[in-house]
Design a protein that fits this description.
about 300 residues; alpha/beta; Rossmann fold; Dihydrodipicolinate Reductase, domain 2; 2 domains; seven-stranded mixed beta sheet; six-stranded parallel beta sheet; 13 strands; binds NADPH dihydro-nicotinamide-adenine-dinucleotide phosphate; binds N-acetyl-L-glutamyl 5-phosphate
Length: about 300
Amino acid sequence: MTWKVFIDGEVGTTGLQIRERLEARPDITLVSLDESRRKEVSARADAAREADVSILCLPDAAAKELVAALAPGEARLIDASTAHRVNPEWVFGFPEMAEGQREKVASAAYVSNPGCWSTCAIALVRPLVGAGLIDPASGPAISGVSGYSGGGKAMIAEFESGEAAGSFLYGAAQGHKHLPEMTEYGLLTKAPVFVPSVGQYAQGMAVAVHLPGLGAEGMAKAEAALRAAYAGERFVSVVAASENEPRVMPQRLNGTNRMELSVHGNPETGAVVLMAVLDNLGKGASGAAVQNMNLMLGADEGAGLE
Ligand SMILES: NC(=O)C1=CN([C@@H]2O[C@H](COP(=O)(O)OP(=O)(O)OC[C@H]3O[C@@H](n4cnc5c(N)ncnc54)[C@H](OP(=O)(O)O)[C@@H]3O)[C@@H](O)[C@H]2O)C=CC1
Ligand SMILES: CC(=O)N[C@@H](CCC(=O)OP(=O)(O)O)C(=O)O
């Protein structure tokens, strides 16, 4: 069995990484457009119609433009941009998120690939809300660090040319574009307070959820809730705190489609921190898109991924 796949935006950061994962696969034939036509909407729509699944690795506006050029049912799409993440007509492409989510992805016409920050945040927060350990109205504090490839070609150029003055925090005004998806799929009623940062390295991400009052008992329950939520999962797992102590290394899972979660804290003060590590271009983007594509095509979910 072979399938045709179109990567719209295949020369961008996310698209290239998907292409690398698919090129080696005998079961996939890539549908490609010439350089001169790759931004022409009619050519992109034709390519999407020809393919069994198309993966959009584009700015939000270009993703919306392609969707608008297609009639419902003409193409199956995975959108890696932010454009459709909380749109109820799209299935959120995080198969491990909830029971039944994997099956929804497999049968969907339109799948939105989650953001890298939100994959980490949702993975940590959602099971704890479910277990009654996070109050959904509490607006939990979340922080994190990403490699600069998370900002695509423009930020890579900024860092690699020396134009960027160094690492920075951002999003302090609480308008980060992943907040709606974190809130909705984290089962929160109030958005988290989220302060991400970009480090002076290319790739890899670590995210921390801060729970100052969870306590020693809550800490044990949090780990149990996370272990139960991801039991048997191949790409999401809970690891011992010692794996991420004393230093959390955001580049630890680079080149993989894995995300590792851990629970940390001080039993005496009751302060607890949940931690997630992934490759922003692996489980945070390109790896996740390939996993969703595999599910939609009926291929082995882990094909082309490690
Ligand atoms: N980088 C990351 O870690 C993550 C990125 N994402 C999301 O994935 C999407 C792609 O991001 P990323 O790969 O980083 O971005 P890049 O800027 O690296 O790549 C975007 C690509 O889209 C192309 N493009 C722009 N407009 C059009 C158009 N109208 N038609 C066809 N192609 C077009 C660009 O062309 P050109 O080369 O000419 O500029 C570029 O190659 C974004 O929505 C981003 O937010 C999601 C999760 C993580
Ligand atoms: C480091 C950095 O700048 N990261 C990007 C998010 C990358 C990403 O996940 O983009 P999507 O929202 O399209 O998924 C940001 O915070 O805006």
